[in-house]
Specification:
With 144 residues, the protein is mainly alpha-helical. It has helices at 13-23, 25-28, 30-37, 49-91, 96-136. It has one domain (13-40, 47-136). It has five helices and no strands. It comes from Chaetorhynchus papuensis.
């Protein structure tokens, strides 16, 4: 299951969240992916469950790596914007619009940082499901 891996727009938080939602589809559907990866008795000779599990594992690793990269990139970009706005604020104490923009960017930065915590929970859940179900089905997981 391929996930978008293009550059994320960090300016619009709703767009950022939507991208992560789409990219988390593989995690949301991990049980379904495993069910379609493990062959039924009639297909055992036609499909190599070890290879398909390895491919699923690699897809999950790639998805996690890409999402983390995007989140950290957006945090870095937004942090730079916040820093710049703070410097401008030091020069223009009375600028209400600047203060409003600074607060908006600080809030967005906190929300993006919280996505790292969400990412950790999503990843942990996927690895637990994958490990549990693959052991139950005798599918080699996490092997090179």
């Amino acid at each position: 299951m391929a996930a978008p891996s293009g550059a994320a727009s960090c300016e619009d938080f709703a767009e950022f969240q939507e991208l992560l939602r789409v990219m988390r589809t593989i995690d949301d559907r991990i049980v379904h992916e495993l069910n379609t990866t493990i062959p039924t008795a009639s297909f055992v000779g036609k499909v190599d469950p070890g290879q398909t599990c390895k491919e699923l594992y690699q897809s999950l690793m790639d998805a996690h790596t890409n999402r983390e990269r995007i989140i950290k990139n957006c945090i870095s970009q937004t942090s730079a914007v916040v820093k710049t706005l703070k410097e401008e604020r030091e020069k223009a104490h009375e600028d209400a619009a600047l203060l409003k923009q600074l607060r908006k960017e600080q809030t967005k930065l906190k929300l993006m940082q919280s996505e790292l915590n969400v990412e950790e929970v999503v990843n942990d859940r996927s690895w637990k499901v994958l490990s549990h179900l693959t052991v139950m089905m005798f599918c080699p997981s996490r092997q090179s």
